[in-house]
Design goal:
124 residues; mainly beta; seven-stranded mixed β-sheet; four-stranded antiparallel β-sheet; globular
Length: 124
């Protein structure tokens, strides 16, 4: 199994940028479909971005053009570059790993492994 640990969260003003990292240990991320989720207070956890083992990416409409996910297999790390941040992006962000599939995994229930989360707060 794989262990995941996010880092890089913090407080940023609207319009600013943050880069989240998700360091994996135990197994290589290339053996999984990876995803980024977020959960704001009082809201359900939602998918932000997903990436397959060949590097194909999927983004929810609200972050398209602002967020970019990538994967460095040599460092066994997943990244989420977040630009033009908005107050509505405020949430706890999680990385997650799902069994390898030849398509994007968009449902949280299909992810078996989760990090502890990192808080992102965007002030207006």
């Amino acid at each position: 199994q794989v262990q995941l640990a996010e880092s890089g969260g913090g407080v940023v003003q609207a319009g600013g940028s943050l880069r989240l990292s998700c360091a994996a240990s135990g197994r290589t991320v290339s053996r999984y479909n990876m995803g980024w989720f977020r959960q704001a207070p009082g809201k359900e956890r939602e998918l932000v971005a997903a990436i397959t083992s060949d590097g194909s990416t999927y983004y929810v409409d609200s972050v398209k053009g602002r967020f970019t996910t990538s994967q460095d297999n040599t460092k066994n790390t997943l990244y989420l570059q977040m630009n033009s941040l908005k107050p509505e992006d405020t949430a706890v962000y999680y990385c997650a790993a799902a069994p390898l599939r030849p398509f994007f995994v968009t449902q949280a229930s299909r992810y078996n492994y989760w990090g502890q989360g990192t808080q992102v707060t965007v002030s207006s």
